[in-house]
Amino acid sequence: MPGGITLRTAVEVRSRTASGAAGMGGAVGMRRAFSTTAARSMLAVVGTAQCNHGPQPPPVRANPNGRNAARLERAASVRSLVRILLVSTFYPPVALGGYEVECAGVAERLAERHEVLVLTSSEGSARAESDPRVRRELTLLSADSRGAVRAPAAALRATGAARRALDWKPDLIYAWNCSSIPQASVRVLADSRVPLAFRVCEHWFGGLFKNDQFLRELLPTRRRAARRPWAAGCRAVNRLPALRLDPLAPVRAAISWNSETLERMVPTPQFVEPVLERVGHSVPRYGDLYEQVSRAPAAEPEIVFLGRVTPYKGVGVAIEALAMLRAGARPSARLVVIGPEDPAYGAEMRSLAERLGVGTAISWLGQRTPEQSAAALAAAHALIVPSVWQEPFPLVTIEAALARVPIVASDVGGIGEGMHDEEHALLFARGDASAAAAALERVLGEPEATAARVLRARERAEDFRIGPYLDAQEAFVLDAHAALSAG
Questions:
Q1: Upper half-sphere CA count for residue 297 (Cβ side, 13 Å)
Q2: Claim to verify: residue 91 and residue 223 sit in the same structural domain
Q3: What is the pLDDT of residues 340-370, one digit of tens each?
Q4: How far is CA 330 from CA 200, 351, 361, 379, in A?
Q5: Residues 206 and 295 both lie in one domain
């Protein structure tokens, strides 16, 4: 279906109480024992977390003039205006990947004829322009002992931010990526009885509340002796009138999954009752830009990696595959790495490249604009996506297909759901650098088969265009509001 949207049938759009184990990824263990005195002093620490109620920004309404006027007028008689509170870990210009860019695209579309307020983390707020519809108030927490120590005070501040957002009187809360922010804010929003919907593009949803660094301490589970005082302190904090949260209280919600693969992989938490569920594949926001690429492959084989340089993205697999290519029939092959780096991992990958003798054959370009990334794809002989984790539904494969670049990728997660093996891309087993090198050699050495596969991939990419996707997202928001309001 155009736009990569899979709508449930009358039977499949179901109302059910989900079961199954919640959460991917366990709770982060504390790296040091906290004394009983330290736990008791926690109340004093969180007492510094003020929840001041500042002036409320005016609601943001779409400008009825300009190129969207005709569409707005046609739609005006169909659905009434809805006030939507959108929650996300990051919001552009602060972004780590496609998740946040996709979120902003949906928010901007909804704001054309609805009122939208965004609640996000304060990370990077210094470089973000002031916007009355975006509140950067939530603390970003690291997934280690430092984040856990900060979690109680951050939770108290987050509940204040959530209640201030509720003062805006939203008709629907749309929670996107809620990892690494205090989920006490989401718990307060869920308890408000305002209709709640989730957009699930990653694995965090399976551990909703149970993996939160504060809320997990409120659960009646067995703990090591060294950790019990800390848990007791967190429960004491939760007795404050501003908190008193129950992580496992029932939640009625609508869920928009970004792939059928993710829906299968991530269990819906047992306390969440899905009232409406749909699968809507993520799509590239800048698809038109990649479609307009004028192909001009480099004189020598050039392989492009486009993504974050982190362990789970598998850059090491690409480096090892490059070394095998150069040791074989492609001694002049090069690898171009584009994307923000985890500093320690980036240094480790450079050392690996030196050990394999390909250090000078790799260009590390860092983060680039969509225009610069598109230009790199124009010169590429292939895109490699060597992920070693369960990718929910990567957009980079769709972007490469639109740019008519051959795709070689790990057969993990939702990669094969978007681009089918042999038909649209060549997939290889997770972490298998030898198989990756063999697939790249096929791309380079079988030009006719490669060209036919690229053509099929380009046709497949038409299923993932931004216009139909945004239409479907607005329809989901309105249907979720209707379904949850009826209950």
A1: 16
A2: yes
A3: 999 999 999 999 999 999 999 999 999 999 9
A4: 41, 22, 12, 17
A5: no
246 and 327 in a single domain? The answer is no
AA identity, residue 373 = S
Same domain, 445 and 349: yes
Parallel, antiparallel, or unpaired for β 334-338 and 83-88?
unpaired
The answer to whether 385 and 436 are in contact (CB under 8 A) is no
| Mean pLDDT of all residues belonging to the chain | 87
Indicate if the pLDDT at residue 312 is higher than 70. yes
* Domain membership of residue 68 as a residue range: 2-282+466-486
Tell me the pTM: 0.82
Are the beta carbons of 156 and 234 closer than 8 angstroms? no
Decide if 472 contacts 10 (C-beta within 8 A).
Answer: no
- Read off the CATH number of the domain in which 215 is found: 3.40.50.2000
**Whether residue 306 sits in one domain with residue 253:** no
Return d(Cα 363, Cα 322) in angstroms, integer: 12
For helices 433-445 and 315-327, the axis angle rounded to 10 degrees is: 60
Looking at the fold, whether 445 and 332 belong to one and the same domain comes out as yes
61 pLDDT more than 90:
no
What torsion, rounded to 10 degrees, do the Cα atoms 186, 190, 193, 197 define?
90
Q: Is the domain of 266 the same as that of 342? A: no
For the chain, the domain total comes to 2
Which residue has tokens 């919907």?
197
Rounded to whole angstroms, the Cα distance separating 210 from 217 reads: 9
Distance CA 71, CA 76 (A): 9
Q: Are residues 250 and 315 in the same domain?
A: no
